[in-house]
Amino acid sequence: MELVSVDRIRAARLLLAGVARQTPLEPSRALARDHGPVHLKCENLQRAGSFKVRGAYVRLHGLSRVQRTRGVVAASAGNHAQGVALAASLLNVRATVFMPEAAPLPKIAATRGYGADVRLHGEGLEDALAVARRFAADTGAELIHPFDHPDVIAGQGTVGLEVLDQLPEVGSILVPTGGGGLVSGIAAAVKPLRPEVRVVGVQAERAAAWPPSLAEGRPVRLPGTRTMADGIAVREPGEVTYAHVSALVDEIVTVDEEALSRALLLCLERTKLLVEPAGAAAVAAVARYPGRFPPPVVAVLSGGNIDPLLLLHVIQHGMTAAGRYLALRLRIPDRPGALAGLLALVGRLGGNVLDVEHSRISGLLAVDEVEVALNLETRGPDHRHEVVAALREAGHTVVEEP
Length: 402
What we know:
Layout: H1 6-16, E1 25-27, H2 29-35, E2 38-42, H3 52-61, H4 65-70, E3 72-75, H5 79-91, E4 95-99, H6 105-113, E5 117-120, H7 125-139, E6 142-143, H8 150-166, E7 172-176, H9 181-190, E8 198-204, H10 210-216, H11 239-248, E9 251-255, H12 257-270, H13 281-288, E10 297-301, H14 308-321, E11 325-333, H15 338-348, E12 352-359, E13 369-377, H16 381-393, E14 397-400
Parallel strand pairs: 2-10, 3-4, 3-6, 4-5, 7-8, 7-10, 8-9
Antiparallel strand pairs: 1-2, 11-13, 11-14, 12-13
């Protein structure tokens, strides 16, 4: 298979002038302290909230007049939907987008806001893509695949050209990777010009189709995915992206759910950037594999479209993973002032009480005891240990929750 050329990506860049923003490349002091110079490529600040508009616009622009008249159809859990909808509105093309029934409401609303006809179908992306294919066959609409097309790869590759312009001395580029369109495009742009730069794809451990695919020498289908990083939860690579990744990408690494949530929290707290879990995957890899990637490192923040309810859950998960929450069960004497004394001690230790549950109902309690469940906010793992040790030293029976 012929790979997408640098010239094709350069042409895509000219086409996208005035359509896609050149997103900033921001240094990260928080990551640089332990990993050498690290920069964040902020595609979360792109139009429609992710890099997807780049590939979608190039793909739609390449359609013939007849194809544009018939309209386009796409399937997506969110970012590709918004990218296609925005590109279609800019080119005055009718767009129908199938999204899973559980797609976040803000993503559905945003896609409709760009003028697309949104239809909800199935439990996941695979179901939506199947019905989108049937719709294309029945109506003649052009199916805009989320990653497996040379025009899409060329559009996404413009991110790589921008990185080379913004940081000519770059040593490694880490890219959140699902189906592989973005990492394929970046590798196709970077490797012919700077072959020594390492291009690394980052997958969620619970949706990692690339390691077995590369081991088998062909795209391998996962039985399922289960990750908060829905933007990279793809069960099977495409034929076109497989050809690019196998030829050009240096390495694929994986990160677990805790690493993703900690990375998202770091982006919020230290860089003041809102990213979705998939968009934080490259940051998670930088933190998880210190010293593995030649600096300066560029971590691509691929998207910032996150449902507020999921954001709340991920923040809580990230704070727990970072040792910022502590759940305890203690036994204290059943007498007036005992609970107040316990809470006063926790306050002196610097713990912030989030909620308290007081119960006399347990077969393990003595007649003159009560059980207290505490959820605390702490300053980190060391502080957690200090609080638990001090409570035990004060004579309390403490059970630390996982």
